[in-house]
Amino acid sequence: xxxxxxxxxxxxxxxxxxxxxxxxxxxxxxxxxxxxxxxxxxxxxxxxxxxxxxxxxxxxxxxxxxxxxxxxxxxxxxxxxxxxxxxxxxxxxxxxxxxxxxxxxxxxxxxxxxxxxxxxxxxxxxxxxxxxxxxxxxxxxxxxxxxxxxxxxxxxxxxxxxxxxxxxxxxxxxxxxxxxxxxxxxxxxxxxxxxxxxxxxxxxxxxxxxxxxxxxxxxxxxxxxxxxxxxxxxxxxxxxxxxxxxxxxxx
Amino acid sequence: xxxxxxxxxxxxxxxxxxxxxxxxxxxxxxxxxxxxxxxxxxxxxxxxxxxxxxxxxxxxxxxxxxxxxxxxxxxxxxxxxxxxxxxxxxxxxxxxxxxxxxxxxxxxxxxxxxxxxxxxxxxxxxxxxxxxxxxxxxxxxxxxxxxxxxxxxxxxxxxxxxxxxxxxxxxxxxxxxxxxxxxxxxxxxxxxxxxxxxxxxxxxxxxxx
Lengths: 251, 209
Fold this sequence. Notes:
The complex is a heterodimer of chains A (about 250) and B (about 210). Chain A has about 250 residues and is an alpha/beta fold. Chain A has helices spanning about 40-50, 70-75, 95-105, 110-120, 125-130, 140-150, 170-185, 195-205, 220-225, 230-240, 245-250; strands at about 1-10, 20-25, 30-35, 55-60, 65, 80, 155-160, 190-195, 205-210, 215-220.
């Protein structure tokens, strides 16, 4: 479980980027944080694995404040996937995926088995891809490896920062479908950040809408689509998602 | 060229001493320079002090630096000790600077992913930062080595030996053959070390598109 209690964040040299955020994400839930650039969604994500630390309030992971967690233990329990994957360019795909297991001193056989299992889970044939370097992969394949790496140590929580943002529409759609299947299998607590309303509606069990450092509210995809809140409508209109409903209303 | 062929053993001995002085001083500079470069990436406040000192050393003429160290205890007892220390001091700047640049040049996304997955500072350094900057650091070592091969010839002025011996003797006797007997092998050493270290640098540079 992840909980934000009156959380604010203000970098030492600038204006507040997050104000008074309250949010509870239940175990096994997928929450999508939706908002434009600079709305504070990536900041919220980084507060959870303490890549940055809040200026006020409390961020709690599994019932314990992130400031009370041992930083390394906290992060090892949280898979982190970022845009462009951030793969280690000097390591092969297999080493990228297995690095954390190696650091945690698992046996070679175990690392190998787990790595192959993870690669198969993201639809990459280990025989074909294990020994490749990141530069030898397409953007979509890199992103899959990023997901496999994040899940290798079987963390209960997964944070995804615009994981499909840099992909072409076809690869994105493939990975989104894949994400849905994976979500059913794994039952992780997932927070995914995106600025794409379609993606939010497709992937979220709940959607948190953010603007100018504030969480405006959380909605199920159905609530979101039928909301009369002008800010929600603005999003739907920008993506051309509410015309059909308007016409139904008229007829 | 006659002198070179007439005295191969003498020249080989001097060349070996030359290589030894450069080699030891490079090891010294690497052992000191890389940690200093890493320290600069961790403590912003130390940057001007470390880089400034290395820069100032570089501006001192080598002959003067050799001379300054002559009265130093222990060091001053053997000329080659002074030579090794001086060469190491000169080599610091390129090694420190390249270590710093290599590490700060690591893709921020890669660093963020590494920190986010729970690597400790130490693991981040050894698993990610150093391997990814090894090529750049090696480029600094390469530059430093080539410079050192040249500067080491001047060490003969304080009696440290090496290929500079022939050059200084040739200058004193106005004998071009003698000068060449020192200068040619020194040039070959510089080119050779540049080639070998360049090859190592290529091996250490991570693969990319």
